[in-house]
Specification:
3 domains, Rossmann fold, aminoacyl-tRNA deacylase activity (chains A, B), BirA Bifunctional Protein, domain 2, homodimer, alpha+beta, 16 helices, 580 residues, five-stranded mixed β-sheet, nine-stranded mixed β-sheet
Amino acid sequence: MKASRFLVSTLKEAPADAEVASHRLMTRAGMIKKLGAGIYTYMPMGLRVIRKVEAIVREEMNRAGAVEMTMPVVQPAELWQETGRFDKMGPELLRIKDRHDRDFVIQPTSEEVVTDIARQEIRSYKQLPKNFYQIQTKFRDERRPRFGLMRGREFIMKDAYSFDRSPEAAKASYQVMAQAYRRIFDRFGLRYRAVAADSGAIGGDLSEEFQVIAATGEDAIVYCPDSDYAANMEKAEALAPTGPRGAATQQMTKTPTPGKSTCEDVAALLGVPLSTTVKSLVLATDLLDDQGAIKATQVWLLLLRGDHDMNEVKVGKLPGLAGFRFATVGEIEAHFGCKPGYLGPIHMKQPVKLVADREVALMADWICGANEPDFHITGVNWGRDLPEPDLVADLRNVVAGDPSPDGKGVLAIERGIEVGHVFYLGTKYSQAMNATFLEEDGKPRPLEMGCYGIGITRLPAAAIEQNHDERGIIWPDALAPFTVVLCPIGMDRSAEVKAAADALYDQLLADGVDVLLDDRNERPGAMFADWELIGVPHRLVISDRGLKEGQFEYQHRRDTAATKVPAAEAAAFLKGRLAV
Amino acid sequence: MKASRFLVSTLKEAPADAEVASHRLMTRAGMIKKLGAGIYTYMPMGLRVIRKVEAIVREEMNRAGAVEMTMPVVQPAELWQETGRFDKMGPELLRIKDRHDRDFVIQPTSEEVVTDIARQEIRSYKQLPKNFYQIQTKFRDERRPRFGLMRGREFIMKDAYSFDRSPEAAKASYQVMAQAYRRIFDRFGLRYRAVAADSGAIGGDLSEEFQVIAATGEDAIVYCPDSDYAANMEKAEALAPTGPRGAATQQMTKTPTPGKSTCEDVAALLGVPLSTTVKSLVLATDLLDDQGAIKATQVWLLLLRGDHDMNEVKVGKLPGLAGFRFATVGEIEAHFGCKPGYLGPIHMKQPVKLVADREVALMADWICGANEPDFHITGVNWGRDLPEPDLVADLRNVVAGDPSPDGKGVLAIERGIEVGHVFYLGTKYSQAMNATFLEEDGKPRPLEMGCYGIGITRLPAAAIEQNHDERGIIWPDALAPFTVVLCPIGMDRSAEVKAAADALYDQLLADGVDVLLDDRNERPGAMFADWELIGVPHRLVISDRGLKEGQFEYQHRRDTAATKVPAAEAAAFLKGRLAV
C-alpha cells in the first residue's frame, strides 16, 4: 500500500472523553471515529487491524473443525421469548418494532438463533459433533459505554456454538475450543492468561476467560507463579486453612472505640493487626409466595476477617443464600439493636443465621462490634463467648500471598482485560427450545451445548493497553495495520531516494510482506511521529545521506536507536526480523 | 474441505413461499435459512458464495483506489435529520429508540455517515480525490419482502462514496468506478448489461445500473443489438419520430362503442390497428400555499397511442408536471362531463392543459373517446378537429422495435435484475451537511460526490436466476461454493477408492484448487443429486470400476455425459477446465 492511496489521518489531541490509552491512541492514530456513544466507524487504519484479528480467528476456528455461517443482526423476538430472554434481559437488549409493529431485537449474542438452526439441521447422533460460528456485528445497549472499543455498544464478536450427544462429548468439544483459543492468542503475540471462571448454575469448572494482561484491565486475575493455577477473582480460592483453632488467651472486653466504625480504624486505634479484627455483614433472603409477595425473611450475619472482602458469587452459592440481598437498616436495627458500624455476633436482639469465613472460624482472641455505637469487643473466642457458627465456608476474595489451592506456592494478582470466553452450556438452551436429536436407541435427547466468544474489536484495544508508550502504539507483528513502513526522506526531491524506495517496496510486496510506502513527502519528524503513533513495528528510513553510504536505517518500534543496514541486504534483513 | 467437516444439508422440498428459482434453490441447497420475513441466515454453503462475491468486489475496489472502512449498522438520527432523510424516508427506514429514548436508525445506506466522516477528514483539495467504501449489513424494512435474497430486509451491500474537487473530477471518479464495476461483473462470469438510468433531479447521464440478464428479472431493460445503447425502461428513449404529419383522409365521426372502454376493445370492435387509437390520461398538479393547503389545481390531459404506456419519470420531468398525481373521478367529471373510459380531447366541459406524445402529435385520422359513455370518435385530425396540443413530448415507455436513439437499429427489450448502481450525486449531501474543503484559492467549496452500490447478497440470487436447470444451480466457477467436488463411490468399502480420492484431494488442495471431498459415504444417486442441486461446476467421480481401467469420470455441471480421464492426468485435466 502507498500512503497516498490510503487514509493516514493522525490527530495531535485525544478526545476529551478518552479515559484509557487504547481509546486515546486509536482515535489519535485515525483507527476509529466516534459516531455516537459507544458507536464507532472502523476507519481504514483500524479496519486493517480488525481484519487481521478476524483472519487469525477464522483460520483457527476452521482448523478446529468449526463451520462458519452468518446469522442475522436483526432477529425476531419469538425465539427470544422461547428462552425467556426477551423479558429477562435488561435494557442492554436493544428492542425494535418493525413497520408492522412486530418485535425484534438486535443480536447481543445468538444462542437462540443457532439453537433454532440446530433443531432444524441436526436430526441424528450421526451428525454430531457440530460447531457453528460467525464473525458478526453485535449490539449491547450499555448503560455507560466508554473506553472506546473496550466497552462499546456496537462491536464485532466471534461467537461459536458446539452441539454434542453427551456431556462428555460436549466437554471434549469444549477442550478443542479451549485449545484453539490458546493457539489464537499465541498467534496474536500478546501476553495473556486463560483463567477459570465461574460457570454459574451449570456447575463444574468448564468456563474459562482469556485475559490479556494489562495494568489498566478492569478484571483482577489470580494466578500461581509456581503452577498453572489461574482463575478470575469471582472464582479463585485459596487453599483451605487447617486447624487447630488457637486457644483463647484474652478475656472478652467491651472497649470504647468512639467514631471508629471500620475495622481499619479500630485496628489503628487499638494498635493491633487488621487481621485480628472481624467484620460483620448482614444479608437477608426472602421467601416469596405464589404471587411473588414476601412470606418470610431470613437474616444472615456473615463474619469475615477485617482485611478480607466478601465474594458475592461464592456467598450466592451457599445453601439458603441464593438470591441474597443486603439487609435494610430497619432489619439490622431489629436484629442487632444498633446501626451499621458497630455490629457483631454477640448481644444480638433477635437470632440470625451465623456464617463464618473459613479463616474466621479458626481465629482466637478476635475483635468485633459490640452492637452498641462507639464500642467494640476484644478478646472474643468461639465456644466460650458465642456458639459455633451455623455454617463455615469460603466467603471471601483471595488476596495476594494466599496459598494456592493446588498447594504449589502462593497466589499473585494482576489486572486483565477479558477478550475471550469458553463456556460449557449444557442443555439450558436446547431444553428451553426443544432442540433434540435422535440417539442410537431411537430416542430424542436434548443437544449438549457450549458457547465460545472472542471480542474481535475489543482485542486491538486490549493489545494497545498492553503495548504502548508515550509516543503511541506498539503492535505485535500479527496485529499491526502494516508490518513494515518505508520512510523515504525527500522522495520528491531525490530521484535516487525515490528509486531505492520504490524498488524495495516492490521487492517486499513481491515477497508477501505487508508493507506501506510513505510517499506523502512529509518532513521526517512528522512522518516518524505518525508511524510511532500508529505503531507499525518495523521501520526502514531511506535517505540521500544513507544512500551515499549504501545504507538504510532500520528501527523496531521498541528500539531506542536505529541500525544501519546495507541497502542491498535490506529486504533479507527485514524478513529476518519479522515474526513468522 | 471434507464434507464430513462441513454442513451439507439439502432439502427435497422448497418452502411454500418461494416464488422464484433462486429462492427455491438456495433454500433446498442449504445456502440460506429463513429466520423471519426477508431475514435469512447465510448458512455455511451460502456464506462461501457470498465471501467469493465480497473478495472479488474488494479486490477490484482496492485496485480502483478506493479505501475500505466499516461504518456502524446502528446510526444516530441526528445526521439523518441534517439531510432531512430521517423524516422524508418512509417506513423502509427502520427506526429505533435506545435505553435513553434517543432516536437511531439501522443503515439502509450510509451517505450521511460517510459525508460526516469526509467533512472531518478532508480539509484541502490536496487530499482529493478520495473514495471510501464498506461491505456491511444493511436493513430496509420492505413492505413486502420476498424472493429470498432478491428482496430481503436484511442484506449485505457494498457501498462506496467518492469525493472530488469539481464536477469534472467527480465525473472522472464516476468513470473509474463504472470501469471497476465492469471488471467485477466480468469476473463473476455472468451475462449482464450496464444500462443508463435516470439520475433524477441531478440530471445528466451519470447514472448506470448493472443488470444481470434473467428471464425472471423484475426490471425491463432496453438495448440496441446493433450498438452499445442500453438503458432501463424509465430512462430509455426511442429516436424522435419525424414528420410530416399525415394528411386527414377521414371525416370526424361519433361512433357507438357500447361497453368498450379500452383502446384494445375499441380497436377490435372497429377492426383497426391498436396504433390508430389514442388513450387519454388525466393528471393533476396542485399549487400549495405556505401552510401546505391546496391553493389551485391544474388538470392535464395526456394523449398516448393506444399501444403505448406512460413513462411516469419522463412525465414528471415536464415543465409544470413535477409532483403530478392522477386526477380524481370528481375532477375528471368536472372537466370532461364523463366518467373514465370514454374520455377524449374533444367536447370538454372545462379547458385542460393538453400534452401529446411525440407519436400522437404526428398522427392523422385517429380514434379517441367522445366524452360520452359508450361512444368514441373516429377520423380525428389535429388542427381541423381540435387545436394543436399545448405541449408535445416523449411521454411513453419504449417498445421492442422502436428505432434506437443513436440511429443504429431498433431497440430490443429483455429482463434484468439490478445488482449494481453507479450514481453521480453532485453536492446534494455535502451542501445539506456543510461538507466543504478548501480550494487552492483558500475558499471553501462543497465536496462533489458519487455513490456506488453492489448488492452482495442479491448477486448470488441473480446468478442463479440466470444459471439453473431442473436439477439445480449451475454456478460460474468464480461464484461456486466449491469449484470442484470429488465424489468417491464406496469410499468406506474400498481402500483403493479412498486412497485415490485422498491423494487427488491433497494434490488439488496443494495446487490451490477450491475442492470438496464428499466423504459422507452417500449412495451415488443421492450424492450426485446433492451436488447438482448445489451447483458445483466440476465433478470427478472415483470408483472401483473406473480405477480398474485407471480412469476417473469428469463431468461439468452443464455437460450431459461424463468424460473418462486417466487417473494420473486427472489433476492436470481438471485445472485445464477451471476458468482462470
